């Protein structure tokens, strides 16, 4: 049995940086309470560990506004501008662990919006990163998720249009939606802000999935980048399994295969990937 482990499996630069920021704060802030605004990553194992170390997750802006002591950590997804302004106004100390690639989109949207552009964000409207990006634009901003959304875009004549993407968006879908919008004849600037970490992970996963008899995708069920990774792998290899941890893997399903591919989403810790890899090797 041969195992092909994707080199790009697991934590990306931004997630690694955000998780390390929390552990750094745990070491530094001995007396102070530590909060994260939303779970720092979509991974139950990591969240449990942080909770045991006293880190509190705040879910709403209302909860955030009530913080009296301690420090708030902003996760890699980033937040709308009004959240940073609110924290500053109330004098609540915070550490901004927004991924620099997401921060760059905030800057683009701010600048383009200030020059009067209509902002189109290609991405999932429910994803916190997209909500965050949206919050750096002035009034004219629209999230496009489906071909229907793209068809429905109407921009007042003469207004420039700026298109950006959620960093974890699928490149091919992005291209398709941009094509629909481009046909409308606007003065359009398209900035492909899809993070290369995602693209590389997706391409490598697809390449491996095409070569193997079975493919394992590891990641939290709530992680959108893992869900996309699964979609891509499942398309290339109809023997693809989506697992959160080793416990979800039924080794019997792999008994008759000769090659197994393994990849993992951006929020999957190395420990879990290694555990799966070692157990597949030992048990099959
Ligand atoms: Fe940042 Fe890319 Fe990861 S945008 S959070 S390095 S997927």
Automatic annotation (TrEMBL):
Q: Which residues form the active site?
A: 129
User: Which note does the record give on the cofactor?
Assistant: Binds 1 [4Fe-4S] cluster per subunit.
Where (2E)-4-hydroxy-3-methylbut-2-enyl diphosphate is bound, by residue? 42, 77, 127, 167, 223-225, 267
EC number annotated for this UniProt entry: 1.17.7.4
What keyword terms does UniProt attach to this protein? 4Fe-4S, Iron, Iron-sulfur, Isoprene biosynthesis, Metal-binding, Oxidoreductase
Entries under InterPro entries matching the protein: LytB/IspH
Q: Does the keyword Oxidoreductase apply?
A: yes
The pathway it acts in is: Isoprenoid biosynthesis; isopentenyl diphosphate biosynthesis via DXP pathway; isopentenyl diphosphate from 1-deoxy-D-xylulose 5-phosphate: step 6/6; Isoprenoid biosynthesis; dimethylallyl diphosphate biosynthesis; dimethylallyl diphosphate from (2E)-4-hydroxy-3-methylbutenyl diphosphate: step 1/1
Residues binding isopentenyl diphosphate, per UniProt:
42, 77, 127, 223-225, 267
Q: Which CDD domains match?
A: lytB_ispH (cd13944)
Name the cofactor(s): [4Fe-4S] cluster
Q: Which Pfam families match?
A: LYTB
Residues noted as binding dimethylallyl diphosphate in the record, renumbered to the chain: 42, 77, 127, 223-225, 267
Binding of [4Fe-4S] cluster, residues: 12, 99, 195
Q: Which reaction does it catalyse?
A: dimethylallyl diphosphate + 2 oxidized [2Fe-2S]-[ferredoxin] + H2O = (2E)-4-hydroxy-3-methylbut-2-enyl diphosphate + 2 reduced [2Fe-2S]-[ferredoxin] + 2 H(+); isopentenyl diphosphate + 2 oxidized [2Fe-2S]-[ferredoxin] + H2O = (2E)-4-hydroxy-3-methylbut-2-enyl diphosphate + 2 reduced [2Fe-2S]-[ferredoxin] + 2 H(+)
Return the similarity comment. Answer: Belongs to the IspH family.
Q: What does this protein do?
A: Catalyzes the conversion of 1-hydroxy-2-methyl-2-(E)-butenyl 4-diphosphate (HMBPP) into a mixture of isopentenyl diphosphate (IPP) and dimethylallyl diphosphate (DMAPP). Acts in the terminal step of the DOXP/MEP pathway for isoprenoid precursor biosynthesis.
What name is this protein filed under? 4-hydroxy-3-methylbut-2-enyl diphosphate reductase
Q: What is the lineage of its organism?
A: Bacteria, Bacillati, Bacillota, Clostridia, Lachnospirales
